[in-house]
Design a protein that fits this description.
Radius of gyration: 17 Å
Structural class: mainly alpha
Number of helices: 4
Shape: globular
Number of strands: 0
Distance between the termini: 16 Å
Order of helices and strands: HHHH
Amino acid sequence: MAGLKLDRVGLALGAGGVASGLGWVLLAALGGNGPLALLMVLIVGTLGTMLGTAMLALPLWIALSRAGYRGPVAAALLGAGLGFLIFLFAQTQGFGLAAAPGAGAGAAAMRWASGAAVALVLAVPGAGIALLMWWVGYRG
């Protein structure tokens, strides 16, 4: 991968993890949690994001990079796409693969519509974090 060194990969992974962790802290603070809980949310959110990024996004980024797509638009689209899919998966009980609470077809359709709406909203920070990681990795 031209222009990207291993140390920059680590810094980008750390920057993305901390940015995401701070986002989770913001959400937890809005819920009225105390300082110790917020510290735990920061630690778990940061480490969880770094692990998830290394498992999901890094292999995809390597493939995109080898295909010649290594610019900020590719990073933002990958971040938004993964953010959308991860949150849609969570909102729809694993894309409908897990047992959902018993309800009619209308409730299932509403769950998918609501899940897609939430996932679209949460794809925006995914794109932003991916852009931050791209900047740290290639420009920072």
